[in-house]
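Researcher: Sequence recovery benchmark, item below. Answer with residues only.
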């Protein structure tokens, strides 16, 4: 094939194999050996930037043809994936997860699923295993890049190199100085250097674009030895990045430059007659050619296997899932990708008409699911569970009355504690007030946090200790400055002692997490007591990761203010055993929703606080 570069398909093959193995979580001798393979996804971005930019330098280039070719290449397989995934999801997903799928479908229609997932979840949270279209975030990035690079060539073709370099450096600055680009959206703190967003990913695409622009210069040397040298260095850098980048936290980051540079060097070699033992490997070329189909199908298939096996896959399950992924991908490649993209199975007019009809149908499907007109098959299962486990009050999302005792401060010698907090602070107050032994030592009052800092409640002057119990950057839009203000009121104006309390765990659920567990496992009422530990492990797995970041911030604030810090995770979870106490030893539930504790939870956690001497005021 004229000008065919096998190394591009080999890079795609390396990328898709790495991503699939990362999601499959390959474990050998109890060690997760593919935990760093997520970085191979970056290879896709650089290759995409390179291939796309090269198209603009073809003779007789046309924007109409470019758009048509990209659409023929990407949209038909994506639409088929969405329809088949929706069908299987109807039978397999829990009601809330099926509803979330509807949102994903709608977001994909507008090429914005990365923005949806950016707002909904952390890519590394356990909840990713409930989102079969999560991986489409990278496709949205691709489309956003296509739009940007097309506009750049349309308006600035004569100065395209300068424009690309400017955009490249801007994106790189966002990557290197992430703290300078934080912002608040819907009362939550985010940063532009986010795994899902184009801002700190754009430079990766443009690294490929810069290589394409450089190769378009006829002065570039075509020395074969030099090319092999670049290939070997590039492969070493990609391999090295797997060992250097040990955690996905705060990714992309400075170390992302390593795999990006490695991939760019291989593309820079531009070896169309490669005989490299890796970069001309027949098997890698095979996987590379069908990498798009492999990428599309692997994630929902793995998700469905997770669902069918209670989110615990053994080696045989994973092998079976990977085999099915390969077979389905071969079918998608041969019967969808090739006919639409390479063989132009439909004329332009018929293709556009078919595309519009199928796209609108898909959008309507997503809207019907999102608005709960179409409900998953498990919806009735949910209702039956609520009836069979009526003692759990699974339909009740409010829980028992939130009764907080008032007028607790007296003239006694007991230590007086005021908790200035949000709803989680109120939960802590009720847990403390529910324990008799705690009440024998302390008198505990609660006041809303804003009342403490705006009205400077008299309770502060009466209390020996004031505890700040809020989740900063949460729904109440409370920040470090608010804590600092309360600290000043308590320690300077009132000359009393001040302590910061960490945020409580939040769980990945829009319903009752216990209800989700019962539905997934098809558990009978008589089996609850035998599965207490499994239930609590399920709660631990479904912790929201960003709460850990919030608690790190709160701990850092306590150090800056030189005050004590109390961590709610010390009594709600056990990091060593990897459990969070969703239920007690008798099977009674401790949470009523994603974070707030039940009446039983107040007593249960109150006992742990007392028995563990958690309330260390000194």
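Model:
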């Amino acid at each position: 094939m004229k000008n065919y570069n096998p190394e591009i398909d080999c890079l795609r093959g390396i990328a898709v194999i790495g991503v699939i193995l990362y999601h499959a979580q390959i474990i050998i001798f109890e060690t997760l050996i593919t935990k760093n393979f997520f970085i191979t996804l970056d290879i896709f971005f650089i290759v995409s930037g390179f291939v796309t930019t090269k198209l603009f330098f073809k003779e007789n280039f046309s924007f109409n043809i470019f758009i048509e070719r990209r659409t023929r290449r990407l949209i038909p397989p994506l639409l088929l994936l969405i329809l088949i995934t929706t069908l299987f999801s109807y039978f397999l997903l829990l009601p809330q997860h099926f509803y979330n799928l509807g949102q994903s479908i709608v977001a994909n229609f507008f090429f914005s699923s990365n923005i949806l997932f950016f707002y909904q979840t952390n890519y590394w949270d356990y909840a990713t295993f409930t989102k079969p279209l999560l991986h489409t975030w990278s496709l949205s990035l691709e489309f956003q890049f296509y739009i940007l690079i097309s506009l750049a060539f349309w308006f600035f073709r004569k100065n395209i190199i300068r424009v690309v370099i400017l955009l490249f450096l801007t994106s790189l600055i966002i990557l290197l100085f992430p703290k300078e680009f934080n912002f608040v959206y819907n009362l939550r703190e985010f940063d532009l250097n986010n795994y899902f967003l184009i801002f700190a990913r754009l430079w990766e695409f443009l690294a490929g674009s810069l290589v394409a622009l450089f190769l378009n210069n006829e002065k570039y040397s075509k020395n074969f030895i030099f090319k092999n040298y670049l290939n070997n260095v590039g492969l070493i850098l990609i391999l090295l990045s797997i060992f250097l980048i040990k955690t996905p936290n705060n990714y992309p980051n400075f170390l992302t430059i390593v795999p990006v540079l490695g991939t760019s060097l291989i593309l820079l070699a531009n070896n169309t007659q490669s005989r490299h033992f890796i970069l001309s490997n027949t098997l890698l070329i095979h996987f590379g050619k069908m990498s798009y189909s492999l990428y599309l199908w692997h994630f929902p298939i793995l998700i469905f296997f997770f669902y069918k096996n209670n989110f615990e896959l053994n080696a045989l399950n994973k092998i079976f899932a990977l085999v099915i992924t390969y077979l389905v991908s071969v079918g998608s490649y041969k019967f969808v990708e090739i006919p639409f993209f390479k063989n132009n199975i439909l004329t332009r007019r018929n293709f556009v008409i078919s595309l519009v009809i199928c796209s609108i149908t898909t959008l309507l499907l997503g809207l019907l699911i999102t608005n709960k007109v179409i409900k998953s098959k498990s919806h009735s299962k949910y209702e039956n569970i609520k009836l069979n486990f009526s003692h759990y009050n699974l339909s009740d999302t409010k829980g028992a009355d939130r009764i907080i005792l008032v007028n607790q401060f007296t003239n006694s010698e007991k230590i007086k504690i005021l908790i200035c907090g949000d709803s989680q602070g109120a939960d802590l107050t009720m847990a403390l007030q529910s324990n008799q032994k705690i009440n024998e030592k302390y008198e505990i009052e609660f006041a809303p946090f804003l009342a403490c800092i705006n009205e400077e409640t008299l309770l502060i002057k009466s209390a020996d200790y004031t505890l700040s119990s809020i989740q900063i950057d949460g729904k109440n839009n409370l920040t470090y400055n608010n804590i600092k203000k309360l600290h000043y009121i308590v320690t300077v104006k009132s000359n009393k002692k001040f302590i910061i309390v960490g945020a409580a765990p939040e769980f990945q659920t829009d319903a009752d997490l216990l209800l989700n567990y019962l539905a997934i496992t098809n558990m009978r009422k008589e089996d609850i007591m035998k599965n207490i530990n499994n239930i609590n492990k399920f709660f631990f797995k479904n912790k929201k990761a960003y709460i850990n970041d919030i608690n790190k911030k709160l701990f850092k604030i306590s150090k800056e203010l030189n005050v004590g810090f109390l961590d709610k995770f010390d009594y709600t979870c056990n990091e060593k055993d990897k459990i969070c106490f969703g239920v007690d030893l008798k099977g009674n539930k401790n949470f009523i929703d994603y974070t707030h504790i039940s009446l039983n939870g107040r007593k249960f956690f109150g006992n742990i606080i007392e028995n563990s001497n958690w309330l260390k005021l000194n």
